[in-house]
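Q: How do we represent a protein-ligand complex in a form that can be generated token by token?
A: Start from the inputs.
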Amino acid sequence: MSFTVAIVGRPNVGKSTLFNRLVGRRLALVDDRPGVTRDRREGEARLGDLEFTVIDTAGLEESAPESLSGRMRAQTETAIGQADAILFMIDTRAGPTPTDHAFAQIVRRAGKPTVLVANKSEGRHAEERRLQAYELGLGEPVAISAEHDEGMVDLYDALVAALPEQTAAQRHEAEAETRGPHAIRVAIVGRPNAGKSTLINRLIGEERLLTGPEAGITRDSIAVDLAWHGQPFQLYDTAGLRRRSRVEEKLEKLSVADALNAVRFAEVVVVLLDVDNAFEEQDQRIADLVEQEGRAIVIAVNKWDLKEHTPGAIGKLKQQADEKLTQMKGVPLVAVSGLTGEGLDRLMQAIVDAYEVWNRRVPTSALNRWFEEAVSANPPPAVSGRRLRLNYITQAKARPPSFVVFCTRADAVPDAYKRYLVNSLRDVFELPGTPIRLMLREKANPFEGRAKRKH
Ligand code: GDP
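Then emit the structure tokens for the protein with guanosine-5'-diphosphate bound:
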């Protein structure tokens, strides 16, 4: 599927340099004087395995529509109108200027998938300055240097995240030619005797049945590779550790460290419970550990073969899970039997789904639409007689989904209010069961330090 991307930003931030880099020809006129590029140009761009149409715009300027810069602005708005996504570029060395802020607002209003491109990020202090650009409220600033051809991989990733559907077809083709899909790293943790080893052996055994004796697993010191209906996984080898620990006769001691190692290795952690005594304190502690480490989680209730499969039994377990694991509402729960192999398909599907949610990026425009509504429906309380102002929100990263709210007096925002925002985020953007991080940051004054920076 073909798509169109517009590069916008105030004059002289480096739009034409990026345009040239993407199009690969010295088409644009590049000049250090502000405002040299007057016209909107289009070209066929290539970035990694992506091909798309790119529009280079004249600099956006804040002036009356009848002037030249007014025309430039109108052209830019036309370009935004034609584009599927916007690359909004700033000059990282200059920091977000008041003009950038004004244009960020125009871009936000357009409500299209946007990548905030922090150009001229080569050299020292770039990271520090990149972080400042968060205050524009357009998501994670992607550091690049169009001039020095740096950061193009990050730009690629950001564009893929901004336009997942449009880029998917192109990428799948390329992926099939190269290495295939990503192997999801999984660990199975739980109390001793929950049935971890039995389940892992069963998964390996079933995979053999599915793929035949030749194909199949490879085992290194920490992980076993296996595939399930074409999706590769790396399974943390708890059993291997068990053998070693037995030799050292330190099983009890090792089990906690084991769990932590396994969790750190994994992208998705399966917390295995024994159906006869599910959700005991130790299970909760393990689940808390997974939450703290920010991993995706799937609860698997094991030894399901011992229970009568009455209607509503699983619903009851899910309800229990929500009550006990309040910070991960909607956590996926499946019933399995490592002994008989029942429910293994459900388990593997739940892992794939949890992985997807954990990786999700919410488009900044949709995020801010939600944010405005959520804040006006339930405004933050006044603290010591003064109103708290929440300005906007941006997703800083995925894996797990992490958000930054820019506000006045970050310390004064009550925890209950943060929980309200997290719960609403979870519902509206369908992020069940995954850890969600919400940070509050005070918005830097865009005028602060500007005079200093000029010298
Ligand atoms: P681990 O300590 O978590 O690795 O647990 P094991 O895999 O060693 O299993 C502990 C005990 O539970 C063994 O006696 C297993 O045979 C039994 N077990 C494991 N999975 C199941 C299951 O799905 N159903 C039943 N009925 N027993 C199981």
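The chain is about 40% helix and 20% strand. The longest strand covers residues 390-397.
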